[in-house]
């Protein structure tokens, strides 16, 4: 199989379901940026949505390219690994910087130590 048009219909439905589910999870995380009021609440929602949504999209993409190329295609998993590592690290660094800033400024609404 060399073209996407030769993809079996059942595989196409699974790939589409994974891609749409992942996109909806990422959208849910993005909506959290608007809904939540405080920084500490806002920073958590997109991280979860992006990580879980990315996982479903990467699984769907890997499945799609595996069927199209006729062999196991693992190149998309590398993108998933990088995003899985960097997203939580970014969350921790942003949260620590915000806590430090709020403690220096004397804000009373910071998380406890």
Quick overview:
Pfam families: PhaG_MnhG_YufB. The chain has helices at 9-35, 39-42, 44-69, 75-105. By secondary structure, it is mainly alpha-helical.
Could you describe the 3D structure shown?
It holds the Pfam family PhaG_MnhG_YufB. InterPro entries: PhaG_MnhG_YufB (IPR005133). This is Multicomponent K+:H+ antiporter subunit G. The chain crosses the membrane at residues 12-36, 48-65, 77-95. The protein is an all-alpha fold and 113 residues long. It has helices spanning 9-35, 39-42, 44-69, 75-105. The relative contact order is 0.14. The longest helix is centred in the C-terminal third of the chain and has 31 residues, at 75-105. It has one domain (7-105). It is elongated. Helix 1 (9-35) packs antiparallel against helix 3 (44-69) and helix 3 (44-69) runs antiparallel to helix 4 (75-105).
What's the topology here?
Elements: H1 9-35, H2 39-42, H3 44-69, H4 75-105
Shape descriptor reads elongated
Strand content: under 5%
Number of domains: 1
Largest sheet composition: none
Number of helices: 4
Report the count of strand segments. Answer: 0
Would you list the SSEs in sequence order as H and E? HHHH
Q: What is the straight-line distance between the termini? A: 57 Å
What is the typical, i.e. mean, pLDDT? 85
How much is the radius of gyration in Å?
19 Å
- Please identify the structural class as seen in this structure: mainly alpha
Helix content: over 70%
| Unreliable stretches | none
